[in-house]
């Protein structure tokens, strides 16, 4: 139970009330004082002082001075009037309670309003600060822009000046040219005059003297021009330099970032060419390289070059067992068969090669030409050993092949010559039979 | 690269949209006129002559030709004549008198495919020796022409029989310091750079820079070869010091990577051979300065002379367009004035300031 403080003294003027409240032995802080416009409370454990004021006061301006063991209130009245007493004598407890609650609510509201007001001012301050910084930045940017503009204008002016100089120079040139022409016309006129006056001696004398200096000038200028032309050396004697390029498989330009991808792709292509159709059981005892059709093809080529046609055929056979989709293998084997005089086999292989070399694109032009030529040769050789109908067949087929080869590569002289020879042969044979 | 007060600034003076695709732009020497070479929408070639007037360029003439024109040069004509040599999409080399452009002064079907690049030397009062034009084409050959000799080139650099060809993307003349000496440098799409000596008609040096070579230029055509800049795909360029050739290692070089995009062109400032500008595939321009090393050559372990490359520093960069800037030309008459053309069909005249203080 709090101890009610009843000892207090007060006095008043028309506008203010002065209340002094002794609080023995306790320290007072502003938090202990609660005041609304008609209710005043001081609660410090264990003391409690409460007063319901006679008339409303202006609590914002009223003050409380905390001294040694005493609080001195200065309460400014809302209305100028003399109070009969400090507090309203109140009888009912409920009224008291109601008044107290009211007071608390009022205080609450006031506090809220104060915080709101504070917030608003804070916002405004922030806004102001932001605007100030923006202005500063704008000023900075503008400064830079202005500098740039100034530069631009300065430079434009200089450019105009330079242009004017150029134009003046051109005009000067033109004027000089005009003068030169004028001079030349004068010279021509004088020369003409000189010739006409050859009869009159006196005149001749004067015109000659006049001619001489101008003539000298003329010859001088002619000379200088000749010299200039002679100063230029003759055109270079034509020559060709042959060059090699760093090899590149792809037709696109070389980019460093793509090199890794390209290597991957090439590796995968090489692997794919290795074993397409493989009978693994037979080939187990072969060495690693011997399973690679490319390696076998190279081996075959080498043997062909040294004249070992049988060996070459064997190599190509093995390669074909591993991968029967490589047209070059058939092509090269056809060449071997030609050399071995296995003409039918040669024809077969060249045909197979041509089949595999579809679609006809510029890339496999060379291969196709070779295939046609080999097949044509085979047919040609065949006809030397056949007679009758099959002879005609062979020769026409041969001619067809040579013509096809010629179509692909029209500039090849040997093919042309051979085609001519076959045509003659056919004509000769048909005449005979 | 903020605008520090002492750095050169690139000021965009004029921007002119064009109704055609622009492949090359060139200043007409001794004047404030410039040329645009390109192709109209209907697949014909266009030469447009502009004059710089105040803050604009004004179109003076438009000349239409049969095939789109890829490149042009004034390098091989005299200052009085100022004939333009062009290479077009059909492989034709033509020399035009711009006052009477109906019939070319010289014409030859030089290549089987598009002429990618052209360069001229011996004209404009620069250097000595015969005026010559070199063209590089997609058919893999590089040919040198003399306008006084019809139909056949005076030098032909072609692949060996049976060799598959690579596109030649760029050519440049250099080392033309007297009447006999001359070299041609060619860059190809597989990264090869080949240096041909025209006096001995031989291959003097070759190297591979691992990326297709987009543009080559010697810092000066008419002096003993000093520096060569080669730009390539993937945002790299190399500066070779050409004064000292080592028997096996060739020329020393320094390289820089700019951005991920292709560097389309490099052009040296005519008034200062250590400053050059590169134009990039992201529509940006970079201005560089080369600094020489303390000693330009040193001896290697076997006592052979070896070059030492210097260093390159970036002076300024600016992004002007969203499309690649494919052509660039400095004015030989006014320091800092340059024109560039981009694939957004815009011609830009730029002024680079403070080059005196660099």
UniProtKB/TrEMBL annotation, chain B:
<keyword id="KW-0677">Repeat</keyword>
<dbReference type="Pfam" id="PF00400">
    <property type="entry name" value="WD40"/>
</dbReference>
<keyword id="KW-0053">Apoptosis</keyword>
<keyword id="KW-0963">Cytoplasm</keyword>
<comment type="function">
    <text>Key assembly factor specifically required for the stability of axonemal dynein heavy chains in cytoplasm.</text>
</comment>
<keyword id="KW-0853">WD repeat</keyword>
<dbReference type="InterPro" id="IPR036322">
    <property type="entry name" value="WD40_repeat_dom_sf"/>
</dbReference>
<dbReference type="GO" id="GO:0006915">
    <property type="term" value="P:apoptotic process"/>
</dbReference>
<dbReference type="InterPro" id="IPR015943">
    <property type="entry name" value="WD40/YVTN_repeat-like_dom_sf"/>
</dbReference>
<protein>
    <recommendedName>
        <fullName>Dynein axonemal assembly factor 10</fullName>
    </recommendedName>
</protein>
<dbReference type="InterPro" id="IPR001680">
    <property type="entry name" value="WD40_rpt"/>
</dbReference>
<dbReference type="GO" id="GO:0120293">
    <property type="term" value="C:dynein axonemal particle"/>
</dbReference>
């Amino acid at each position: 139970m709090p101890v009610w403080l009843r000892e207090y003294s007060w006095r008043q003027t028309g506008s203010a009330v002065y209340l002094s409240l002794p609080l023995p032995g306790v320290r007072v802080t502003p938090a202990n004082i609660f005041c609304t416009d008609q209710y005043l409370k001081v609660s410090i454990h264990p003391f409690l002082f409460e007063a319901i004021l006679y008339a409303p006061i202006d609590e914002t301006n009223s003050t409380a001075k905390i001294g040694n063991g005493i609080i001195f209130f200065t309460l400014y009245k809302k209305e100028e009037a003399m109070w009969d007493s400090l507090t309203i004598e109140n009888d009912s407890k409920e009224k008291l309670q109601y008044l107290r609650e009211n007071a608390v609510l009022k205080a609450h509201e006031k506090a809220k309003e104060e915080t709101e007001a504070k917030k608003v001012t804070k916002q405004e301050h922030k806004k102001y600060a932001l605007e100030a910084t923006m202005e500063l930045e704008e000023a900075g940017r503008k400064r830079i822009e202005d500098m740039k503009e100034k530069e631009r204008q300065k430079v434009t002016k200089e450019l105009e000046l330079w242009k004017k100089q150029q134009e003046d120079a051109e005009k000067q040139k033109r004027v000089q040219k005009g003068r030169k022409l004028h001079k030349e016309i004068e010279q021509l006129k004088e020369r003409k005059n000189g010739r006409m006056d050859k009869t009159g001696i006196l005149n001749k004398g004067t015109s000659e003297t006049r001619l001489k200096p101008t003539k000298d000038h003329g010859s001088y200028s002619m000379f200088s021009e000749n010299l200039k032309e002679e100063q230029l050396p003759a055109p270079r004697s034509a020559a060709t330099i042959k060059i090699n390029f760093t090899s590149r498989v792809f037709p696109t330009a070389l980019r460093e970032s793509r090199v890794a991808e390209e290597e991957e792709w090439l590796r995968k292509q090489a692997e794919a060419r290795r074993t397409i159709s493989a009978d693994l059981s037979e080939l187990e005892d072969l060495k690693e390289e011997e399973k690679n059709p490319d390696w076998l093809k190279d081996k075959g080529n080498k043997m062909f070059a040294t004249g070992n046609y049988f060996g070459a055929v064997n190599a190509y056979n093995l390669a074909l067992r591993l991968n029967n989709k490589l047209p070059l293998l058939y092509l090269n084997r056809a060449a071997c068969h030609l050399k071995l005089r296995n003409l039918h086999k040669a024809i077969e292989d060249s045909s197979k090669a041509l089949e595999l070399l579809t679609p006809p694109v510029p890339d496999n032009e060379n291969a196709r030409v070779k295939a046609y030529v080999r097949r044509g040769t085979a047919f040609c050789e065949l006809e030397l050993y056949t007679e009758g109908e099959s002879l005609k067949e062979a020769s026409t087929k041969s001619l067809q092949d040579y013509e096809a080869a010629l179509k692909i590569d029209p500039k090849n002289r040997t093919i042309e010559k051979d085609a001519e020879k076959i045509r003659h042969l056919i004509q000769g044979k048909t005449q005979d039979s | 690269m903020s605008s520090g007060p002492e750095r050169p600034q690139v000021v965009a003076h004029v921007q002119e949209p064009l109704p055609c695709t622009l492949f090359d732009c060139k200043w007409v020497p001794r004047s404030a006129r410039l040329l645009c070479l390109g192709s109209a929408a209907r697949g014909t070639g266009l030469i447009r002559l502009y004059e710089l007037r105040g803050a604009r360029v004004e179109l003076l003439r438009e000349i239409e030709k049969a095939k789109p024109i890829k490149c042009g040069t004034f390098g091989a004509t005299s200052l009085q004549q100022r004939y333009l040599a062009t290479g077009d999409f059909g492989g034709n080399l033509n020399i035009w008198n711009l006052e009477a452009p109906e019939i070319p002064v010289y014409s030859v079907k030089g290549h089987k495919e598009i002429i990618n690049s052209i360069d001229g030397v011996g004209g404009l009062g620069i250097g000595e020796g015969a005026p010559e034009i070199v063209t590089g084409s997609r058919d893999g050959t590089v040919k040198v022409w003399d306008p006084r000799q019809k139909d056949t080139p005076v030098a032909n650099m072609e692949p060996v029989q049976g060799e598959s060809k690579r596109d030649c993307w760029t050519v440049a003349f250099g080392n033309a310091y007297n009447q006999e000496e001359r070299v041609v440098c060619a860059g190809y799409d597989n990264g090869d750079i080949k240096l041909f000596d025209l006096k001995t008609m031989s291959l003097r040096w070759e190297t591979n820079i691992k990326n297709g070579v987009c543009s080559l230029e010697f810092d000066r055509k008419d002096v003993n070869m000093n520096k060569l800049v080669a730009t390539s795909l993937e945002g790299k360029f190399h500066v070779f010091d050409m004064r000292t050739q080592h028997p096996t290692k060739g020329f020393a070089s320094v390289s820089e990577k700019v951005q991920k995009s292709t560097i389309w062109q490099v052009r040296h400032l005519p008034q200062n051979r250590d400053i050059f500008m590169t134009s990039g595939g992201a529509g940006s321009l970079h201005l560089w300065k080369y600094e020489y090393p303390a000693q330009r050559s040193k001896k290697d372990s076997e006592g052979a002379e070896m070059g030492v490359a210097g260093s390159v520093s970036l002076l300024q960069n600016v992004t002007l367009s969203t499309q690649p800037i494919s052509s660039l030309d400095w004015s030989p008459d006014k320091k800092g004035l340059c024109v560039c053309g981009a694939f957004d069909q815009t011609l830009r005249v730029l002024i680079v300031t403070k080059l005196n203080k660099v």
